[in-house]
Write a structure and sequence with these properties.
Length: about 425
């Protein structure tokens, strides 16, 4: 087991010192020798690629690139074919969602083609010209908006994560799932563009007794949820674009509700109706679904904001670390209550912790990238990350989460994730 305590006892930062040593060693090896070694290993693997390694000029430099017939809508490099969303591991004749390949992503934004999906009745195909958004109920001037009309209102663009409250739910029962994608891939992050809901509510004029609103989707699930008026008037958005382009069909084209920080199911896709009322509407999704049964049998309801969570993505489950020495431990943290204030990382199963660096700018209710250099000495390790948000809330251990919530819950699992590293570098999902 690596001991971070020993490392801390060293007056000189052990990471910098050993890194300098590693760099000196690397510099001492002639470049040509490195090339020859790499070429030899490529040959040993039966590859004909030796001619493409330095100092040789690779084939792709010797001739012009392909003619300019890139598809009108660009695609990732064919060498990145493996980076795709996956369906849940249990076979399902009617798939209900797909997961983001978190461990293959960089930085904090999720490309639209890799954004996770969760559908209750499939993806409807909606002609924007025939779509309307109705706002009615306890208002002075009800509205029926075309997409063109909606897009004439002043717009905002903001970066937020979206997480399904069922993310990680398989972990309640035990260490199920292999990769970060399989276990935690129901979270993604994007720049959302649309109209603040408060702008539209200003337009319709709320009656003094307006307290809640109902949001309804135009899919076959007619998904409905109640939203408190405070959130609606605060940062709720009526979103039509994501990462610079119109919403993808699977994200709610042509328009969705977006409630920053709140559990994903409240951000109603394919939004067709907002009804203003005086009390919650008690829809199926907030009575039977999306509630958590506590140890005393009572139900936790209207949870709204997702609690602080983090997960190490590099290295993470299913990966194999190639060789000891320096690497970066890196992952994502987020909180539905605001900004991430700090992420601590342990390499010894939670005995010792070091504070990771947070990628700037740290945004409220957005994925936040954390990074920490690690000199892996080749011994077995248990990697963990622990997020703290600006309210002071600390991501709980699995034991603490279960002590507070019991084991009857399906949703809202956000305990510290542990990855076991074996001496041969294999990384797997464990509960400690
Ligand atoms: N109309 C409608 N809205 C919906 C859903 C749905 O099935 N129908 N699924 C909800 C759930 S459970 C989640 S987690 C998010 C997922 O959004 P995404 O598919 O854009 O990731 O949308 C929510 N909004
Ligand atoms: Mo969800």
């Amino acid at each position: 087991m690596t001991s971070d305590q020993n490392k801390r006892a060293d007056p000189i930062d052990p990471f910098n010192r050993s890194r300098r040593r590693a760099l000196r060693r690397a510099a001492a090896v002639p470049v040509a020798a490195l090339g020859a070694a790499a070429a030899q290993s490529a040959l040993a693997q039966g590859s004909a690629a030796a001619d493409n390694l330095p100092p040789a000029v690779p084939t792709w430099t010797k001739q012009p690139g392909g003619p300019f017939v890139t598809p009108p809508y660009g695609l990732p490099s064919p060498f990145e074919k493996h980076v795709v969303r996956v369906l849940p591991s249990a076979p399902n004749p009617f798939p209900t969602g797909s997961r983001s390949p978190l461990q293959n992503l960089h930085g904090t934004l999720t490309p639209n083609g890799l954004f996770f999906e969760r559908h209750h009745a499939g993806v409807p195909s909606i002609d924007p010209a025939q779509h309307r958004l109705m706002i009615h109920g306890r208002v002075k001037r009800p509205l029926l908006l075309t997409m063109d009309e909606l897009m004439r209102f002043p717009s905002v663009s903001r970066i937020y994560f979206l997480e399904c409250s069922g993310n990680g739910s398989s972990q309640w029962a035990g260490p199920a799932g292999r990769t970060a994608q399989e276990i935690h891939g129901l979270v993604s992050c994007a720049e959302w563009t649309g109209v603040l809901l408060s702008t539209l509510l200003d337009e319709v004029g709320l009656e003094p007794d307006a307290r809640w609103l109902l949001a309804e989707g135009a899919d076959a699930a007619a998904m409905t949820r109640s939203v408190p008026i405070e959130k609606a008037l605060d940062d709720a958005m009526i979103v039509y674009a994501q990462n610079g382009e119109m919403l993808r069909s699977e994200q709610g084209y042509p328009v969705r509700l977006f409630l920053p920080g709140y559990e994903g199911n409240m951000s109603i896709k394919w939004l067709r109706r907002i009804k203003i009322g005086t009390a919650p509407f008690q829809t199926r999704e907030e009575t039977s679904k999306y509630t958590d049964t506590l140890p005393d049998g009572s139900s936790r309801r209207f949870t709204f904001a997702m609690d602080a969570k983090s997960v190490i993505l590099s290295p993470s489950g299913g990966q194999t670390m190639k060789g000891r020495g320096f690497r970066e431990i890196s992952g994502i943290a987020w909180s539905g209550h605001g900004k991430i204030r700090r992420v601590d990382v342990s390499t010894d199963g939670g005995r010792n912790w070091r504070t990771a660096e947070l990628q700037e700018p740290v945004r409220s209710m957005a994925l936040t990238r954390f990074r920490l250099p690690w000199n892996w000495d080749g011994s077995p390790a248990i990697l963990q990350s622990r997020a703290m948000d600006e309210t002071g809330y600390v991501q709980p251990t699995r034991d603490r989460l279960i002590a507070a919530r019991g084991l009857n819950s399906l949703y809202h699992y956000h305990a510290i994730q542990s990855w076991r590293v074996t001496a041969n570098g294999e990384v797997s999902n464990v509960h400690v």
